[in-house]
Amino acid sequence: MKRIKNSFSIKNLENISGIKAHTIRIWEKRYNLLSPERTDTNIRRYSLDSLRKLLNITLLYNHGFKISKIANLEEGEIPFLVRDIALKSNSEQVSINAFKLSMVNFDTVMFDATFDELMNNKDFDFIFMKIFVPLMSELGILWQTGAISPSHEHFVTNLIKQKIHIQTELIQRKHTPKNNVSSFVLYLPENEIHELSILYLNYHILSKGFKTIFLGQSVPTSSLKTILSYSENLHFVTYLTVEPNREEIEEYLNNFQQDILEDTESKLSIFGPQTQYIVNFKLPDNIHVYTEIQPFLKEQLQIEVFV
């Protein structure tokens, strides 16, 4: 794994902040807001402190502060204004930027405070779908392009997982599962470790009053046979981010059908990017593919969804 990234190009700053490189250069020259170092070939390089400062400035700027006013603020005033705006704003993008700022600073306190303020006005489903999902999508692109390090992404991902675990436990303690309905078994296939989405699906199904059995990451199909001794009327749910890969996915489904579903009343629902490669495979009646959660809720949980 790479070390924590602490030197950034102007293109990195543009990608993370959303402020065009041309504008950043103007702010440097006209208002002396940033002071990049120069390489031997005269290329700008920015420190982690410069990135933090630019994210703070961006949040203020996007919230109506004129750049000339920001430039006249004392250095210590900016973080206090940023925290105040981030905690009081109803803008989803402001919240996303606040979480990005907490990521750059490795600031758990700011992350928690932003989340708590959101929970005062929104429910967890809204926060996950409208803020956490776009945030993780942005961070994935930033990580792939080298704008942030894996340490940044892991920091935020694990904080989001914490929030899902807390909300899931609250549901489990408050709700009694419905009787006489299928239990949902949530798992990830062998070598699949990206569990954020399956954690949320587990929370969401629980919140609708159904029993779940959460097995987590990298579960071989052979291990799922054991759970059939509990019931032969189970609803398996999985999320395929990278595994099984495009060459293996149809074989995986064939084996799952033969080893787990055949001669039982159980079924399998599949989510995730890898489902796009199920092209020539004729799905049996007990395997279903979903690109969004709403059709799944309506078809498999018989819950009407109003958007």
Question: If you had to describe this structure to a student in words, what would you say it looks like?
Answer:
This protein is of the alpha/beta class. The chain folds into 2 domains: 7-163, Multidrug-efflux Transporter Regulator, Chain: A, Domain 2 (Orthogonal Bundle), CATH 1.10.1660; 175-300, Rossmann fold. Helix content is 52%, strand content 12%. The protein has helices spanning 10-17, 21-31, 48-62, 67-71, 77-88, 92-104, 108-121, 124-144, 150-174, 196-207, 221-224, 249-261, 293-300, and strands spanning 7-8, 37-38, 44-47, 183-189, 212-219, 234-239, 267-271, 287-289. A 5-stranded parallel β-sheet has the order 5-4-6-7-8, sandwiched between helices. It has a 3-stranded antiparallel β-sheet with strand order 1-3-2. The model has no long low-confidence stretch (mean pLDDT 85).
Short overview:
This protein has helices spanning 10-17, 21-31, 48-62, 67-71, 77-88, 92-104, 108-121, 124-144, 150-174, 196-207, 221-224, 249-261, 293-300; strands spanning 7-8, 37-38, 44-47, 183-189, 212-219, 234-239, 267-271, 287-289. It is of the alpha/beta class. Strand 4, helix 10 (196-207) and strand 5 (212-219) form a beta-alpha-beta unit.
Write a concise keyword list for the protein shown above.
single chain; 307 residues; Multidrug-efflux Transporter Regulator, Chain: A, Domain 2; Rossmann fold; three-stranded antiparallel β-sheet
